């Protein structure tokens, strides 16, 4: 009886969750170069849902916004985003190069329920209600009802031709981090940590790379050829000239007279 060949099972994908405003493209390019046989399953989620997905085991790692629960999640801060305020293009704030929280004192500032900024005190006047999402708040800003403070990447994500934004200084900023369950630090998670931290393929701390290095056959090192020792040439010493002492290049002159050349008295 002929044995039936079992189809090769494709490797399990690396499940990466990311929140709005975060772009993992540059890291995924490096992943494809180093691990072309391991696919990546991208999971987009709302800011709060990213943490929940990691805690439930639905993702291996995530590009999320801090803070996270450090008792169960490990996190590596990656970068801090600039905070901006979004408003209609014909708004008086458009004349400013940058805006402070004091400039918003008379403005209605929306605080959506998915806000990613940790405000000790909200700037401006409170809105009549909290929009459910940042996208809903953008619609209200476009209707000239108020303004919105968000990380710059979210302002770009929800870009509209009738809206613009300016840097908002002296206010909280959002930090993006790579997070994963501390109890589930897999080989693929280690590989992605090395990629995010900018390690090269040879210097990556990933266990998979180390195991691959161990599987490679060791090549004996070639010994360097030893330099040939030269036999020193012996040169015959020249014979001293008459009146010259051996080993001395100066010629001694004979003394004048028997008393060492003194004057005759």
Task: Give a description of the structure.
By secondary structure, the protein is α/β, with parallel strands linked by helices. It has helices at residues 25-34, 47-55, 134-142, 152-157, 187-196, 207-215, and strands spanning 14-18, 40-44, 61-65, 73-80, 83-88, 98-100, 108-110, 125-126, 147-151, 163-169, 175-181. It has a 6-stranded mixed sheet. Strands 2-1-3-11-4 form a 5-stranded mixed sheet, sandwiched between helices. The longest helix is centred in the N-terminal third of the chain and has 10 residues, at 25-34. Residues 206-225 and 254-265 have low confidence and may be disordered.
Task: Supply database-style keywords.
disordered C terminus, alpha/beta, five-stranded mixed β-sheet, six-stranded mixed β-sheet, 20% helix, elongated, 11 strands, 265 residues, single chain, 6 helices
Sheet/helix structural class: alpha/beta
Radius of gyration: 39 Å
- Strands ordered across the widest β-sheet: 6-10-5-9-7-8
Order of helices and strands: EHEHEEEEEEHEHEEHH
CA-to-CA gap between the ends?
137 Å
Helix content: 10-25%
Strand content: 15-25%
What's the overall average pLDDT, rounded? Answer: 83
Poorly predicted ranges (pLDDT <50, ≥5 residues)?
206-225, 254-265
Separate helix tally: 6
Shape: elongated
Summarize the main sheet: 6 strands, mixed
Strand elements, count: 11
């Amino acid at each position: 009886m002929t044995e039936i060949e079992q189809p090769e099972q494709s490797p399990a994908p690396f499940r990466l969750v990311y929140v709005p405003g975060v772009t993992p493209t540059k890291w995924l390019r490096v992943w494809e170069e180093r691990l072309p046989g391991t696919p990546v399953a991208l999971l987009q989620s709302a800011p709060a849902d990213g943490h929940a997905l990691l805690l439930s085991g639905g993702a291996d790692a995530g590009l999320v916004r801090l803070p996270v629960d450090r008792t169960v999640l490990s996190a590596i801060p990656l970068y801090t985003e600039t905070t901006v305020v979004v408003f209609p293009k014909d708004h008086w704030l458009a004349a400013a190069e940058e805006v402070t929280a004091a400039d918003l004192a008379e403005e209605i500032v929306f605080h959506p329920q998915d806000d990613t900024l940790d405000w000790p005190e909200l700037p401006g006047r409170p809105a009549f209600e909290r929009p459910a999402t940042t996208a809903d708040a953008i619609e209200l800003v476009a209707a000239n009802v108020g303004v919105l403070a968000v990380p710059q990447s979210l302002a770009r994500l929800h870009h509209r031709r009738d809206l613009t934004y300016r840097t908002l200084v002296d206010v909280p900023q959002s930090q993006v981090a790579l997070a994963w369950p501390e109890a589930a630090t897999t080989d693929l998670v280690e590989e992605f940590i090395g990629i995010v931290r900018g390690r090269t393929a040879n210097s990556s701390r990933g266990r998979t790379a180390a195991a691959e290095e161990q599987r490679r056959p060791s090549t004996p090192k070639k010994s360097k050829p030893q330099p040939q020792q030269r036999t020193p040439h012996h040169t015959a010493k020249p014979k001293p000239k008459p009146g010259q002492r051996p080993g001395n290049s100066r010629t001694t002159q004979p003394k004048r007279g028997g008393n060492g050349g003194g004057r005759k008295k």
